[in-house]
Amino acid sequence: xxxxxxxxxxKEWQKDFEQRLRARYTAAGLSDAAAERKLExxxxxxxxxxxxxxxxxxxxxxxxxxxxxxxxxxxxGRIGDLRLDALHAGQGHEQAxxxxxxxxxxxxxxxxxxxxxxxxAGELFNGYGVRGQLRMRRVSSPPExxxxxxxxxxxxxxxxxxxxxxxxxxxxxxxxAGALSPEAAVRKSDRDFAKLIPxxxxxxxxTFLVLxxxxxxxxxxxxxxxxxxxxxxxxxxxxxxxxxxxxxxxxAMAAGERATLAAGDxxxxxxxxxxxxxxxxxxxxxxxxxxxxxRSIDLPRSAA
Length: 304
Hints:
The protein has helices spanning 11-27, 32-46, 93-107, 159-176, 182-196, 248-262, 277-285; strands spanning 2-6, 50-56, 59-71, 74-84, 112-117, 129-138, 149-153, 206-213, 216-228, 231-239, 267-273, 289-298. Helix 4 (159-176) crosses helix 5 (182-196).
């Protein structure tokens, strides 16, 4: 019978958890320095987690970690870790631990439960909706411009319209992924943009691009260099709707890869929101690997 015991001393679990997480990040292509930066962010949060030892007939078989915190005015739960020792995997303990985590978070007021996957989870979280993926590709040499698409710096007169469009698109992505309500998504958009680019076009280590072909504007790009050591993060590479379906998406990514190398980084990273299958397929075909995948479910789980 699977049972759970809340731990008072988490040191052994945390050491094992960090080792596993570091291995997954480096296997996904992150450098040691970039993986360590990711771990620093985890360490800043892990002190708030509740860690339970999973046992079977008194023998420890794994761990499950949970937390409930405020998320824009609503309580949301998260499964920070769920691991079974190899000898005890596939015996039903995984499902029992998932169910325990859902019940624990619901009892502590959560109405939504999320998990950040760094490796395939089989069928265990198939009922959780995919909210987003973090994708990355290492870039070793500047790709040639594709489809006649060129990139130039955005001008101050173009910036306000771009900003309004990007904020609206961000809200739409969040809502479509099912992550937040429209009202909460607008508040998150306002906060995030104010934090990320407080000086607009002059914000250091950011590149703002206008994508053109034959002198006609077809899209825009926004990249943050050194987001992790050696990694540029692509906040947006956007092709205008009337120009989609012409292969410009891959051309925009090539422009982002050139900007990445020009800034001295060697990898380009993006987030693709759940529900955007076109973008997911594009990233896959271009060789962008999944580093993390965010999933969530409403609580209490509906009977199905």
